[in-house]
Design a protein that fits this description.
globular, 5 helices, alpha+beta, 4 strands, Alpha-Beta Plaits, about 45% helix, four-stranded antiparallel β-sheet
C-alpha cells in the first residue's frame, strides 16, 4: 500500500468519525419525544470580534450539560442571499434532547445559569425555537 493511499484512507475515516454526532442525532430523531432547541443571538456589538468569541465560548461551555445529546454552535453561513434567509443574527446554538425533562434539566442547570450570568451582556436579542417530533 502506498503512502498516498494510506493517507487518503486515514483522511476518509477521520472525516466519517466527525459525522458520528450528527448520525446519533438523526437516529435519535426516530424517538417521538425528541426536543430540538434552536437559539439565535443578536449581538449588542456586532462588530466586536472579542464579544463574538466570548459568546461562542460561552455557548460551547453548555456542551458539558449531560442531557444535551448533540450541540451545534454556528454563525451565519455565506449562502446565497434570498428573501427567506435571515442571517442577521450573530451566533446560533442547536441542541437535541431526548425529551422535555432533559431540556428542563438543561434550563435549570448551573452551567446554563452561569452562561446567562456571564454572557447576557453580549446580546441584545435572543429568539428560541423549541420543537418536538410529530
Amino acid at each position: 500500500m502506498t503512502t498516498k493511499s494510506t493517507r487518503r484512507r486515514f483522511i476518509a475515516q477521520a472525516s466519517l468519525l466527525t459525522l458520528a454526532p450528527a448520525f446519533n442525532a438523526l437516529a435519535m430523531d426516530q424517538d417521538k419525544n425528541v426536543l430540538v432547541h434552536h437559539v439565535f443571538f443578536w449581538m449588542k456589538n456586532p462588530n466586536s470580534k472579542d464579544d463574538l468569541a466570548k459568546l461562542i465560548a460561552g455557548v460551547k461551555s453548555l456542551s458539558k450539560i449531560e442531557t444535551i445529546q448533540y450541540i451545534h454552535v454556528g454563525i451565519p453561513a455565506s449562502t446565497e442571499k434570498r428573501d427567506v434567509v435571515d442571517n442577521s443574527y450573530g451566533v446560533s446554538e442547536l441542541m437535541f434532547f431526548k425529551d422535555l425533562a432533559g431540556q428542563k434539566t438543561y434550563q435549570d442547570h448551573p452551567i446554563h445559569q452561569k452562561f446567562i450570568a456571564e454572557c447576557s451582556h453580549l446580546w441584545e436579542r435572543v429568539v428560541v425555537y423549541d420543537t418536538i417530533n410529530v
